[in-house]
Amino acid sequence: MQKNIMLFVVFLLSVSVFSQEDLEEVKITKKQKGIKKSYTLTSNTSLITSKELLKAACCNLAESFETNPSIDVNFSDALTGTKQIKMLGLTSPYLMITEENIPSVRGASQAYGLSFTPGTWIESVQITKGAGSVINGYESISGQINTELLKPLSDIPFFLNAYGSTDSRFELNTHFNKKLSDKWATSLFVHGNARVAKNDMNNDGFLDNPLGKQINVLNRYQYYDPESGLVSFINFRYMNDKKQTGEVDFDKDRDRGTTNHWGSEINTERFDVSTKIGYVFKDMPYQSIGFQNAFNTHRQDSYFGLNLYDIKQNSFYSNLIFNSIINNTMHKFTTGLNFSYDQYQEFVNANDYSRIDNSVGAFFEYTYDNTDNFSIILGGRVDNHNRLGFFATPRLHVRYNPWKNGVIRFSAGRGKRSANIFAENQQLFASSRTFSILDNSGKIYGLNPEIAWNYGISFSQKFKIFNKNAEAGFDIYRTDFQNQAVVDLMQSPQDVLFYNLKGSSFANSLQVEFNYELIHNLNLRTAYKYYDIQTDYLRGTFQRPLQAKHRFLGNLEYETNVSDNKQWKFDYTFNWSGKQQLPYTASNPAEDQFPDFSPSYVVMNAQVTRVFSPVFEVYVGGENIGNYKQQKAILGANDPFGPNFDASVAYAPIFGQMYYAGLRFKIK
Amino acid sequence: MKNLILIAMITFLGFSAQAQTKKNKNLKYTTEVNGNCEQCKKRIEKAAYGVPGVKTASWDVSSHQLAVILNEEKSSPKDLNLAIAKAGHDTKEVKATDADYENLHSCCKYEREK
């Protein structure tokens, strides 16, 4: 009994501090699965465990979604190789991305932020489709991704991971953990990666992947005292990332700022401090209070040919959360205050866009759960922001289990955000496009805040076919923009235009999923996705560029039974992407044009892991083993300082097949 | 001196005795409730939540333990036991009537202790 109460306390504690982590706690007894879909949570949330993360080649958060149907991994551009993600067809700026419930990828870090979290640090990732919770803020429109890092009190004393690949990328991850007392523990994570050799597999004279170096260090402390009900985390983190891309012959010391050769460097330095303290009231495990604070400074110095782009962001974020009940735990509420402050120093060529943003907000979220088959979360917040004004953000989530192993969900919510148009679209600097902002009356680069409503409905059902587990489901979401900072690539291949939406812009998505255990230990996961994302541009209504209308994902995983501590694991992923609208290039000379639509293509990944013992395992794998390559990756590659140069259009892999191998060593 | 200590002790003891008779707003109370399945769990917890002052209720299928936090100012543990029994489930303190037991769904008809 004591143990049950303890578990309950721990559970509630994690609810208070992480607020969305309940899934993991509830399902702890089940056999470890890669992706867990809850049938009792109110929101449409799936949990990616560390097991699933191991299926990807490597190496960081941006690359960890390749086997996940809810998230599409795209290729951001022909130069940086940074993978961009989309949910419901909208890019990551429309997602709330948090690390242990503190907003992480935002503002200056929008383009590359996901690649700054090494995969081995991650304990789990929770993905919520559609409107998120109001607790973390007002910005999420199409979804929420929360990453939980390994916890010092439950971590193993030593972990080592080494990785190398045929595209000459190398990674080394080392984790150290020490229990300082029965209440204090600390972890030190050191990550380094480098890409040392130049690759040009499509012979266009440009690197297919950037040269790069990253050092990333995290030191965290955890305190937990079950008797007093006090829990705390303190994190310190430093990251330094350097990338060089462009022409193979580009020498940064010789050619920077000249037109000898086209080249680009993106250097980022970041420092984070965050603290968290939570307290569970004595004798009242249902009542708790949490206080989070985060400070970070993020500095990116970069140039893309002759385009200069520098941004520095100092941020402070604070969140006070109080959880309790009304009468009993069927009626729960969470309320609190947020404060955020962002100081930007941003320079685009000779233009200074420096500014200060700040906001203060209050939220209240009420949850009713009949402890059986129905729950509802009603959330609202009001914020006062120096650029967005004073506004309210309502959110609603409903869950109903009409019968056994079936769940219907509905969600609706509003999101509002300021678009950091340069940071979010910086791949466009790698082109000869002229940046023009057509509006000047708004408070954010002359533009108005983006406002959108998102509605969604989903259904999932578990059942048995021939006595094997199966699951089928679908979801439909719609995002309606009331205002959007439109990024117009449909007007002219020499321009990118930014303006307030005139007319309509929406994103409809449908996902149909079917998962089946074909034979014991062999699991199949399939998903078909349909996207209809239309925006009214100046030249007419078009599908959003670089978005496939149809996508299909298949994943097969097979594991042998563990015998003698040894095990084999196999994983295969099939990704089909239908044709995509491409930016308008018809006014260019014929050799510097893209067709209106890209061809469809298939990317296949596979991996084999051999577990030799609980201490040691080795994995090998291949990405894009069908060796599909985008035929023409860069327009005007012969004349990179000419008017038709454009390296920002990547609809498919640039680099062909890639093979990798790695090892993991653990001391438990 | 001895007397002083004695007086101090008695006073102290008196205080603590008084503290115990004072009604606890967050009484942790655990009792055994008979039942056998997830459906029972829902029924038992629902019945517990129906008692005024019950703040949390959780029944464990395998151990048969019902753990609640109860505001004694509103209801007593006895009220809780009566409510659970009314729903058809025998508790350690109160047995359900045969009629209430017979009302249970067939899969919930646990073996009664005589």
TrEMBL record, chain B:
Domain HMA, first and last residues per copy: 26-92
Keyword Coiled coil applies: no
Cited CDD domains: HMA (cd00371)
Matching InterPro entries: HMA_dom, HMA_dom_sf
Family matches, as Pfam families: HMA
Keywords: Signal
SUPFAM superfamilies reported in the protein's UniProt record: HMA, heavy metal-associated domain (SSF55008)
PROSITE patterns found in the cross-reference section: HMA_2
Superkingdom in the source lineage: Bacteria
Signal peptide: 1-19
Record has Signal as a keyword: yes
Name by which UniProt lists this protein: Cation transporter
Species the sequence originates in: Flavobacterium ginsengiterrae
Lineage: Bacteria, Pseudomonadati, Bacteroidota, Flavobacteriia, Flavobacteriales
